[in-house]
Write a structure and sequence with these properties.
The structure is a single chain. By secondary structure, the protein is an all-alpha fold. 77% of the residues lie in helices and 0% in strands. The radius of gyration is 18 Å and the shape is globular. The chain starts with 11 loop residues before the first helix and ends with a helix.
Length: 197
């Protein structure tokens, strides 16, 4: 059952998540709707959106604004931002295809597994530190890849930094995905015991 207050809709964290979602079309417009493409502007916007990834969760916990809607809206906003950001940057040609594929395949596998486990009655699993660190690395690396193909004065440095960040990010993200397998088995067993099935 939801905790008292968790049925609220209008909370600051939910508003932040909605604003992040509303900025996705703006990011795509900067990348594909302007001539020439404003890659640096798109990179800055994506970086800001990535930095706000943890803000809504922190506010929700700090000021007691955790809500049922927020538990769904926040990860949904994260996934849409990641898909639009990585997908848009790959279509633009600013990031290597194999890097984007490694990120998107991992996200797809984790998302499908989470939905399947929920449907089978598994207890809710928390995100691991490795998963959080990997996602944060992607949120840093892809704006850097985009900056490296822009007219910014530090474009060459951005390209180097992107590789410095994305490689450990991929290692951590895939490590977290593999580590979810035994944790998922435990969560499924505990969920079924708890429900009496």
């Amino acid at each position: 059952m939801p905790e008292p207050g968790e049925d609220r809709v209008l909370t600051i964290p939910n508003i932040i998540s909605l604003v992040r979602l509303a900025c996705v079309p703006w990011f795509l417009w900067l990348l594909f709707g302007t001539e020439p493409p404003d890659r640096y502007g798109a990179a800055l916007l994506l970086a800001v959106l990535g930095c706000t990834d943890w803000v809504d969760g922190w506010i929700a916990r700090r000021w007691g604004q955790v809500s049922t809607l927020g538990k769904v809206l926040d990860p949904t906003a994260d996934r849409i931002m990641l898909l639009a950001g990585v997908g848009g940057i790959v279509v633009d040609g600013s990031a290597p295809l194999w890097v984007a594929a490694a990120v998107l395949v991992r996200e797809a596998l984790v998302s499908v597994a989470a939905l399947a486990l929920a449907a089978m009655g598994a207890r809710r699993m928390d995100v691991t530190w490795a998963g959080k660190a990997g996602t944060f690395a992607f949120m840093v690396a892809f704006p850097l890849f985009l900056t490296s193909h822009s007219t910014a004065g530090w474009a060459d440095l951005a390209g180097t930094l992107a590789w410095v960040v994305v490689v450990p990010g991929l290692v951590l993200a895939w490590y977290a995905a593999v580590a979810y397998v035994p944790a998922a088995r435990i969560a499924l067993a505990e969920g079924r015991v708890g429900s009496g099935t």
